[in-house]
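[job 0412] stage=fold_complex status=start
inputs:
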Amino acid sequence: MNIVVQKFGGTSVATDASREMVIQKVVAAKNEQELPVVVVSAIGRKGSPYATDTLLDFVSTHVGSITDREYDLLLSCGEIISAVVIATLLNHNGYKAKALTGGQAGIITDKNHKNADLVYTHTDPILACLEQDIIPVVAGFQGVTADGEVTTLGRGGSDTTAALLAASLKADRIEIYTDVDGIMTADPRVCEKARIIPAISYNEVFQMADSGAKVIHPRAVEYAMRSQIPLIIKNTFTDEKGTCITQTKIDTSQKECDHIITSIAHRNDRVQFTIQENELSGKHLLELIAEKDISIDLINIFPQYKVFTIDNQHQASLELLLKDNSYQYTLVEDCAKVTVIGERMTGIPGVMARIVKVLQKTHIEILQTADSLTTIGCLIRQENVSGAISALHDEFLL
Ligand code: ADP
Ligand code: MG
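[job 0412] stage=fold_complex status=done
writing structure:
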C-alpha cells in the first residue's frame, strides 16, 4: 500500500470546523486504501492560545530571556498539543491513531537549538504504527538530538518534517494542506490578480520559497526534490486539485509553460546598507558580520564601498558593530525585495530591461538588483510592493 504524508498547517487545525476538514482528508486517504502519515503544526496563528508565537510572547512578557534549550522545549509544546488533538479526533471517528512527538517519531537532529538540521530518521516507530493499522500523527517542527534533547527546526519546520518523513518512508507523495488552493503566481494577500499554478518544478518553488513566498519552506522542497517525491499543495477547506510540484512541469497543457516567468515572490522588512571602506579594522567587514550570524543579500562590492541588504531584525546589531569599528555608513529602511522567478528566462535576453521599464512606468524606484539563471530580484521601498507586483504580474503573466 502507498504511504502518503499529509501535513496540516496552523489554520487547518485552528477551529472545530477546520479540524473536521482535516479528519475528512485523512479518512479520504484511508478510504483510497492508502496509508496516511499525518504531520501537524501548532494550532492557529499569532494570538491563538496554543500558537507558537503566543508561547513566545508569554515567555518574553512574563519570564524574560530564556536559554535555547528551554526555548526549544517550550516551542515544541504547540505541535504536541495539536498532534494529541488530531489523533484523539481520529479515534473518536473510529480510526486508530497515535500522537507522536518528533523524537518519538524517530526524527534525530543535530544540536543546533532553534534551527536544528535533520540528521536521520528511524522509521521503525512509524512503520510499527502502520503495520497495526494505526494512523501516526506526528508533531511537526521538532526532533531530538542523539542524546535526547528536544530541538526545533526553525520557521516552517513542519513542512520540513513532512518532507523528511516522506523521504525516509519512501512515500508515494507529500500533501501540504493550507488555507489557499495551491501555489499562486504571487502572494494573494498582496496581489489580487494572483492565480493558481497547477504544475511547477521543484527548482522554481525552491526559488519562490527562498525569495520569501511563505507557502512552503525551502528545505522541504529540497528534501522532496532529492528523493523525487511529488509535493502537492492543497487547500484543507476545498476540494481543488492544488499544485503539483515535480522535477518538470508535467501539465504541459497549462498556459504557464508559455510564460518566461512563473511567479513573483517578495520579502519585506529589508534594510539597505551602504558602507564606506576603512583601514582601521583589522578584520574584514564581511567576516565580522558573519560572526554575528547576520545573513546578507543583494551584495555589491565597489573599491570604495559595499552595498547590501539585511533583515531589519538585525539592524540594531549591525549598526552597533559598524560604530564599534568606526565604519561610515548610510541606510535605507523599510525596503522589500521583489523577485521574479522562471526557469525559462535562462538565456532569454531583455527580461531585466522589461522589469526596469515596467517599474519606471509605474514610478517605482529600483534601489538595487540582482539576477541568477532563473531569478531577478529588485530592491524597492516596501510601500511599493503591491504596486510593483501588480505591474510585473500584468507584464509577464496575463
Ligand atoms: P500554514 O499555516 O498552512 O503552513 P502558511 O501561512 O505558512 O500556512 O502559508 C500559506 C500562506 O502563504 C497563504 O495564506 C498565502 O498568503 C501565503 N503565500 C505567499 N506566497 C504565496 C504564493 N505564491 N502562493 C500561495 N500562497 C502564498
Ligand atoms: Mg507554513
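[job 0412] summary: Residues 129 and 136 are 6 Å apart (CA to CA).
[job 0412] exit 0
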